[in-house]
Specification:
The chain is α+β, with helices and mostly antiparallel strands and 201 residues long. It is built from 6 helices and 3 strands, in the order E-E-E-H-H-H-H-H-H. The site of one iron/sulfur cluster has 13 residues, from helix 3.
């Protein structure tokens, strides 16, 4: 049925067709990354369409996801990720959509010399590919979620990136893409990182 009008009513979206009126919760229609977005207004832009918006929260949508997984006992968490990653077809759409993956023909995931990851189609290789990508973008990932959006088999890739981003924030008090010119923490080096406390190891 053709949509005649769409309007907002508090936390709900009202869709009007010729014969029907549907009321849908806004949070069911948007990406998790949009729920509680701290930066609904771009921090840098040439031209802003519409009015600037205040922060909508502190990543509540993604925090809910990560909390659900972190609450699982280790064996169940392992099973969860196994069942998700088993679907991976190693298409590399996650990498190709990532604005930070700029290595073009030199991505180490596809290198044969040296062969960092076997091209075998096993769970270990699929897993390793995710570890690879997450570590390569750690401290630079802005949580844009394009990797997850591009994944043809619906693996919740942003959950892993959000977890890594939280670790970076806790350890280095750093969020990627916020301050122009600030160096990502993994591109800097301090003999003693204040929150890592190597001397106490
Ligand atoms: S969320 Fe991070 S890893 Fe995924 S596409 Fe965006 S920058 Fe890349
Ligand atoms: S996964 Fe790593 S090596 Fe491959 S394009 Fe991304 S940053 Fe480069
Ligand atoms: S986009 Fe999805 S299926 Fe493709 S390599 Fe990445 S995780 Fe695997």
């Amino acid at each position: 049925e053709e949509v005649a009008a769409v309007s907002f009513d508090g936390d709900e979206v009202v869709v009007q067709t010729k014969n029907k009126k549907l009321t849908l919760p806004f949070k069911d229609l948007v990406f998790d990354k949009c729920i509680g977005c701290p930066y609904p207004t771009p921090l840098l832009y040439d031209y802003l369409v519409g009015k600037p918006l205040p922060p909508q929260g502190t990543h509540e949508g993604l925090n809910e996801r990560t909390k659900r997984i972190e609450a699982l006992p280790p064996e169940e968490r392992l099973e969860f990720w196994k069942s998700e990653l088993e679907r991976c077809i190693r298409c590399y759409a996650c990498r190709n959509s990532c604005p930070l993956c700029v290595c073009k023909d030199f991505c180490s995931a596809e290198s044969r010399e040296p062969l960092w990851i076997s091209h075998a189609h096993g769970i270990k290789e699929k897993w390793l590919w995710q570890v690879f990508h997450v570590l390569h973008v750690a401290g630079r990932c802005t949580g844009c979620g394009e990797c997850e959006r591009a994944c043809p088999v619906g693996i919740p890739l942003l959950t892993i990136r959000h977890m890594a981003n939280n670790v970076i924030k806790d350890l280095f008090d750093y969020e990627a893409g916020i301050k122009l010119g600030e160096k990502p923490p993994l591109l800097t080096y301090s003999v003693l990182e204040p929150k890592i406390e190597e001397e106490k190891w």
